[in-house]
Amino acid sequence: MVTFGKKLKERSIQEWQGYYINYKLMKKKVKQYSRQLEGGNLERRHVLKDFSRMLDNQIEKIALFMLEQQGLLSSRLRRLRESHDALEEQPDISLVSNLKEEYRAVGQDLLKLLFFVEMNAIGIRKILKKFDKRLGYRFTNYYVKTRANHPYSELQQVFRHVGLGAVVGAVSRNLHELQNNQGSYLSIYDQPVLPLQDPVVDSIRAAVDRLTRSTNFLNFMAKHALIMQEELPSPQDEEGEEEDGRYHFMSLLLNLVNTFLYMVNTYIIVPTADDYSMSLGAAATVCGVVIGAMAVAQLFSSVYFSAWSNRSYFKPLIFSSIVLFIGNLLYALAFDLNSIAVLLVGRLFCGFGSARAVNRRYISDCVPLKIRMQASAGFVSASALGMACGPALAGLLQVRFKIYKVTFNQDTLPGWVMAIAWLMYLVWLAISFREPALQPEEIPKISEESNNSEAVQDVNLEKGIKQPLLITAEEIEEQAEDECDGSEEAVEDSRAPANSIVAAYRLLTPSVKVQLLIYFMLKYAMEILLSESSVITTYYFGWSTSSVAIFLFCLGLTVLPVNLVVGSYISNMFEDRQILLVSEIMVCVGILLSFHVVVPYTVPQYVCSGLIMFVSAEVLEGVNLSLLSRVMSSRLSRGTYNGGLLSTEAGTIARVIADATITVAGYLGRDMLLNVTLLPSLVICVLSIVATCFTYNSMY
């Protein structure tokens, strides 16, 4: 993979060569500043002033050339519009064909201009980031704040590509009208999805989508999955991805089904765990340990499955299915064996079978880039659906019978049902899964290759201009450019994936640590709400297992609609950090409303406060993981100890502590359980809000 400077030189349009950002000159200037500052020969104030002036000049050159080219395209479109109007008065099939070709020619030139804008936008972002990294400044913050929303800002021309939308619209609309639509009164504005569009229009739309990458439900859900992408290949690379045979639709489907079944397995026991514990002679609050045992085992299984997925995907999934089958079998048999130990061992086995790390890794490594967003969104959707279906299924299993000496009731049936489900899945997996070919690792080259995708430490660029173009995957080459002056060993080390949890932790910036704290907080609060729901509702309201199951099912059903609203609307109206802070505050409000301070404790209070807490936590999780996927070091995008593993471990630790809190608090009595378990949630939530305010105030 070549560095950006070489890529810019190779891909730039020759006749426009003088209008691109002079990336090579500015890179040399940054190195010169660095040497002069180290020698004490230059003041920082002079550096900032000089570099700002140089960058302003570069952006002015780009913006004025863009305006000139837009003017030329607009003039051509105006002339074509006149010909189009004349043709409507006197139709001529041969002239229609010629007119369409002329519009296509304008479309091809528009594509060139869009590519020109994209390359320059990437160059500006890279040089700003390089300046901050080499000189230790927060120059990006200052530059974006002062230029982004200024009325005379030329930076907006580049990053908002002002005016290009009108040209895109004119080409698309006229080509649509010139196709066989004379008998239709509908325009492109009346039909969101047009059938049989002109190939040029499709290409333009793809270029604009790549350029804007505006937030929508699909990419919001994909980031929610925290499937980190190491790089964004060129179109040629994408074709190669499909040809190398690594992607197999049925294998992807099997991974998504594995995700769904595991989430069902996690939550199917929640409505009956307290009753099962009491039937084995334990306290109702031991349900916290029963539910949390799965999370404890997942702390370890996430690591070994992540390491195993470096060599295979099929074998870990087979192992996962077998272990989960055994775990559910033990869980179901614990009733007749009258053993709480067997029950806990069964749940531990279920946790040891957690292959979510493999599911994530398969999507990031084997699914072609053009459908990776859909696959990632499918991963989140499968998880949400499993979370809703688990309690609902438990609510349906309200029967009791015996076959020989084996008891089937509401406590044991979840284990039997899931054991059968995993056995059927195992057979399907053995028949249909296709192991992708392992790709050999490339030897990194100092001056030409890099695979670091420092995903958006320049988040301020996106937020200042509200244009996610700044967060493209082109940043994967930056580490090589930053380190090319050092030794070969230093460069290779700087790009190597983390080889331990400790090494991975050292790569975390303060903002990433804050976001992991937020993730810990929301998982803790959600686990407290879900795991103790059966005990709390039985104690205060006398709810049956079916009632608890319906409540949890309704909570689970909110996941996808909430993400739809946030991803499609709210995230386009507000900045991520604003949504983040408001969501944290709403989680805090939900926790406060949940406390039992008024007698009697009512169903509306519990349900409404739980809904506020859960929905706010869901919004918070999506936005937090979206930000986390952009600011985490690219050295955490690959290898065993990757970003997905770190976030999974943070969430799993939160769940373990929450479930342990429920069990410990149970010794104080069920009347104290609610307030005692909510208190740590409140403290952690307040700490996360303070940390968020402090971090973003320092950044912005």
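That was protein one. Protein two is written in the same sequence-then-structure order:
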Amino acid sequence: AMTERRSVGYSVHREVLDEGAVEEMAEKSEVKVTCSGPRMKSLILGFLPILSWLPRYPVRDNAVGDLVSGISVGIMQLPQGMAYALLAAVPPVYGLYSSFYPVLVYFLFGTSKHISVGTYAVMSVMIGGVTERLAPDADFLSWDNVSNTSVVDLLSRDAERVRVAAAVTFMSGLFQILLGLVHFGFVVTYLSEPLVRGYTTAAAIHVVVSQLKYTFGISPARFSGPFSLIYTVLEVCYLLPQTNVGALVVSIVAIVGLILVKELNNYLGKKLPVPIPVELIAIVVATLISWQVNLEDKYGVDVVGLIPSGLQPPVLPTASLFGQVIGDAFALSVVGYGIAISLGRIFALKYGYKVDANQELIALGLSNSVGGIFQCFAISCSMSRTMVQESTGGKTQVAGALSAVVILFITLWIGTLFEDLPKAVLAAIIYVNLQGMMKQFKDIPALWRTSRVDMCVWVATFILTVLFNPDLGLAASIAFSLLTVIFRTQLPSYSLLGRVGDTDLYRPVEEYNQVPGVVIFRSSATLYFANAEMYQDALAEKTGLDITSILSAKKKLEAKRKRQEKKEAKRARKDAKKDRERDTCLPPAGVVESLQSGGFFSGQVTKACLFSTNHDAVLHCLSERTDGSHTDSESEEEVTHTHTVTFPE
């Protein structure tokens, strides 16, 4: 059977309207600012999301999952917090503080149910760059009369670095709060996924290089500024002959053990209700071996050292440091927010809820600001802990709060047991946790197949961040990303579309047979001042239209129309003036009749009457008496009467 193809036509009739006509037809509604009870309630619940979801918390459905998840994440927070404190160049116990206070604050103000906030490798290495720059070892050297050498006053140095870390963290929190209050959450749109992934991969390289000194047991010089990573690698290579064999062996054993157990977790992931806490097992075993063998004294292996029990009292950050860390604080605020909101949106989309971008800024800002007061360093979201929190059954922010309780318990009672933990083990934990970031190198061939511009953004971000450090690298990467946007708008693709057959479909005329009629000129970029001239040239090339001539003719017609309107307006003014001159300003009709009947004058009044501006009107009437039966002699004689008549008010 054959089917007949029918063409469908569309006919649209609509009056052509200009902007003025649209404004007249559509009445604009007035914007009213009101403060009603429901609106105030909505604002409060928006600022404190916990008030909206905690009263409706389904204990029976979520309590067990959140409890198991919170304990699992808290156990992970212990080794990661201590390890990332080394990246921040502060004592390990401050990593535990950073895993407690900010997490509780986010529990109150955050909107993501699944992300695990706390210490993060990229943020920690950025903090470490600031602390080592403003509190280098050289500023704390003192002369040791026993050994006749210069030694570093570690207590004074660490105290100053803690103050620097707290100041930059507090400032980054203030930036995030300010950006959240002005609804600047859209700033994350400028951090494209290739940029973020390239940046985190480069930051992982910085993290690895910063931990090489603990792996090899050496003390390289500290470098800062552009190309500092290259200088550090060269310094490490130069010091390799001085490697501490004990530290290297501890590192290798820890790395191999961690990788094997993590692979076992991945293999048995569906069979195990909770992943094996390999990191906790590693630090416990390493601490016991170090304590029994006395690795520090016998083999010179660097250990964590003193871990004070209890919590630190709140201290306001040192205001004199704010001016020196303002740039680093802004970079931290943008990077931390970008990573957290990206991961938060992934899980929000997966589980069908919404993450408020501006509220996330405020939540992270308050977490960092409060954390800075309690001497914490900047936090963000950790991918590894978030995956554990989600896979172990965590469904709400309660899991994060329970993990903070676990850290509190460890800090108050059992933290001192880890004083003999080798720092090489913490470095090994960091290396293994960076596996996910290192796998992001696979993005390059994938982006090459899908979008080469995005691949260029990834590669450029990686190179710039490696060469210029995380802070300057971020600024340079964003600038490069924006340049690619400008590049895309400067070189768009232009095409001419024609109707295909008897359909209402339009396709490029170079690829399809077209039906004569209407054609469409299409540009792949938005038209604005930077590409307007190229748009005009492409339009002339594709269609043969001379836009310049058309615009010139239009201007001439417009000028002609304006001249015609001026002439008509001038003619109208002249006609109106003549009409005014012909009009006669007469006194009231009754007065004229009384004057004529009284014999004051006869004939026709031919001149205008003038009135004074006061209450009495003085009428000057120049009358001419004419008679239809007068003679020539009489016509030569003009009789003129002038009368003054006062009219009442």
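Strands lie at 117-118, 141-144, 149-152, 380-381, 494-500, 506-508, 514-523, 604-605, 617-624, 640-647. Keep this in mind for the problem set.
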